[in-house]
Amino acid sequence: MANRSAGNLVRVTQIMADFGCSERQVGRFVSEGMPKARYGKYDRLACLMWYSKKLRCDLDAAGDITDLEREQIRVQRATADLKEMELSDRRASLIPRWIHEKHVQMAFDAVRRAILPIAEQIAPELEGLDRLEIKTRLHKKYRDVLSQLATGADVVMEVPSDDDAGTEVKQPIAKKQKTKGRK
């Protein structure tokens, strides 16, 4: 879980905005036990969870509070809970970095496999042609290969499953659908 929290570190200004308080108050919260990742950095989800728990404890301990104070605490708790849920949703929608890097590497490999053999494939057809005809045929061949890569046709790309972080087990990725209107 250390990897996940590293991507959710925020500055004190974000915590101030989340809690609606001053930097001094954030310092007081830290002295009361709010988690702090390192100097000037806070794990936002952990802080929101701590703050929500603190508000609940304060509410339980208050007993003799007015309706206005009770309503303010309820609103603060609801706001903290909402921000906690939003952050949790954001975390769930992120893909691990290693999957992204693997996907990009496979895309580069697909491009390399498509472009490198072009010279060898077309060279026999170009013998004896004039310069303009050679240029035209090369241009057409490269455009065909690039179009094929852009549509995903005949390009098989795979990404490892989430369970296999360090292994070579792979799942196929769906090819992009060709859109009409643009050439």
Architecture overview:
64% of the residues lie in helices and 7% in strands. It starts with a helix and ends in an 11-residue tail after the last strand. By secondary structure, it is mainly alpha-helical. The strands form 2 sheets. A two-stranded antiparallel ribbon has the order 1-2. It is rod-shaped, with a radius of gyration of 28 Å.
Topology diagram in text:
Layout: H1 2-6, E1 9-11, H2 12-19, H3 23-32, E2 41-43, H4 44-62, H5 67-93, H6 97-115, H7 118-126, H8 131-151, E3 158-160, E4 170-172
Antiparallel strand pairs: 1-2, 3-4
Helix pairs in contact: 2-4, 4-5, 6-8
Order of helices and strands: HEHHEHHHHHEE
- Record the strand order, biggest sheet: 1-2
Shape designation: rod-shaped
| Rg calculated over all Cα atoms | 28 Å
Distance between the termini: 45 Å
Helical content stands at 55-70%
User: How many helices?
Assistant: 8
Q: Helix/strand-derived class? A: mainly alpha
How can the largest sheet be summarized? 2 strands, antiparallel
* Strand content range: 5-15%
Secondary structure tally: strands: 4
Mean pLDDT: 78
Low-confidence stretches: 166-179
Features:
mainly alpha, 183 residues, two-stranded antiparallel sheet, two-stranded antiparallel ribbon, single chain, 64% helix
